[in-house]
Design goal:
122 residues, alpha+beta, 60s Ribosomal Protein L30, Chain: A, seven-stranded mixed sheet
Amino acid sequence: MDKKSVVVEELGRAGPYSHSVIANSMIFLSGQLGVKENSDNSFEQQFRRAASNVEKILAQSNSSMKNIVRVVVYMKNQGDFELMNKLFKEVFSIATPARTTVVCNFPNDKALIELEVTAVTQ
């Protein structure tokens, strides 16, 4: 099996992991947060930043948003579900991926949303 790890230096890392791993024709992304210090950390802004990170990682992995097949959305507050659906439709409409949504807590108290993506190569 062919396997390649991808790290996007501009995104930094919070631990010893790859931003994505390409295995054969599948791309598995590590979960992406949208928290940014000294910035608007509203749910919408975190969602958009996390999605932007996903786009950068996919580009570095020789793929794109249209090749996403599955997204797992982790949310801190169930009350953000309607807004998440609106943003998800806007950001991921090109791919119409399968989706799972989980309400949970995060190690980073400021985190409201995390996106975990699986895609295919181009």
